[in-house]
Amino acid sequence: MSFFKRLLLILIAILALGMATLASVEAQTSPNPGIQPFGLVIPDGFERQTSTFGVDLYRKNYPGGTPDFVQVVDFSKGAAIELLHGPIQENRQGKGAYGGDDPRIASRSLKQFWNELASSVTDPFCVVNGQFFYMPESPTRLPFPLKVDGEIVSDGYGKEQFQGKKLMLEMWEDHADIRVLSREALYESSAPNIIAGLAEDAPKNIKKYVGRTFVAVVDGQGDGLYETVLIFSTRTARQVDAASVLRSFGAAKIMMLDGGGSTQLICRDQPIIASERLIPQAIGVKGGVPPSPFSDDVQISAADQPVVANAAPFVAAQAEVAVEVANPEAVAVEAPAGQPVSQPASQPASEPTGDQVMEEPAPYPVHEAEALAVSQPEVSPEAMPLPEENLVVQPVDAGESPAELLIAASAEESPPAEPLYDLSGVLLVPAMMAPAMGFVFLIVLKMKFG
What we know:
Blueprint: H1 3-29, E1 47-52, E2 55-60, E3 68-74, E4 80-85, E5 88-90, E6 104-105, H2 110-120, E7 124-129, E8 146-148, E9 151-154, E10 166-171, E11 176-180, H3 183-188, E12 193-198, E13 210-218, E14 228-237, H4 239-248, E15 253-256, E16 265-267, E17 270-273, E18 281-286, E19 307-310, E20 392-395, H5 428-449
Antiparallel strand pairs: 1-2, 2-3, 3-14, 4-18, 5-6, 7-16, 7-18, 8-9, 8-12, 10-11, 10-12, 13-14, 13-15, 16-17, 19-20
């Protein structure tokens, strides 16, 4: 074998070694492709229009087109979705797709559904159209199942329709999920609320620009639970467009609801996407309740000196929050002998200060084509509620004034964020290549000069 052939083989061997080393380093530094990404993302172009605790409404405008709206509903913050339906006119027992009921349901305007939501919850946010329905009939029927507060209202009639394309959105108190719909999945689910729909690629005017209503779930905390539900609404879009928007928000699973002329949206009692079509079923969204920064029963005792419990001011968006002890009689304050203690059993809630109240949003323009112009001030990190476990009790000198309860907070300093990837392994490449190159160089010298 000639000298140059040997040199070529040696160079090929060195190149293969280097590529294997790089592949090993890449495997160590790249994220596992089998692990699904998580976390809510607000895409470019979407601006928050209004919000309440646990719920945000985002809007994106398109030049010459119609805007997209996305509601972000965080179940982990107490926000929730209410499944609403019109009065049942006829039960039709045993005539459903899975042996249950297939009732005829009276249709309503979305404004009527808003009034129902506003009269039953403390913080109504939005209502949006929901399930598909059989338009030729009135009262009408639902093609797919609906379960409300633990009771299956309808099995639906569409057992043979859209084979392999039927899904269901299951909702618990603190999380949700989207799974394939079947009789077993429906009747064995522990979710108290279920609304069924179709896969994003089901043949429902799939390539036409029509009204669309989609829902999706997001694992915002990376714990395998989908605690955030997204609701997409627009007057004109293809199915692929709606699904793409939801994925840009971080959606892991997506389901299509009724669209076309049924697409409509009311937020804060103002029409955002208006339609005159009456519908038998709607989705209501309500805000959560900001958690108290301390437990229901707070026991504070000082045998030798008074104490001061400190917690930072508590701010909730669009709500006037007055901090008070949930059970005033449970608060016991003891002071050293001889020192007077003035601690009433209960105190009236004080008026919130200027930095404790978020500015009330301006009303929506009534005309649906007008842009939403609701300003929403950002909440500074210092003003956000702190977890209960960070409440500390700090002793003060015995010579201080009589013991008082001052609510404030002390949060531990967050540890530095870890880097996303560990690139230190890349240094292994030149370290491993250098000896090989030196060895090849010695071989070449020996072959050349004997």
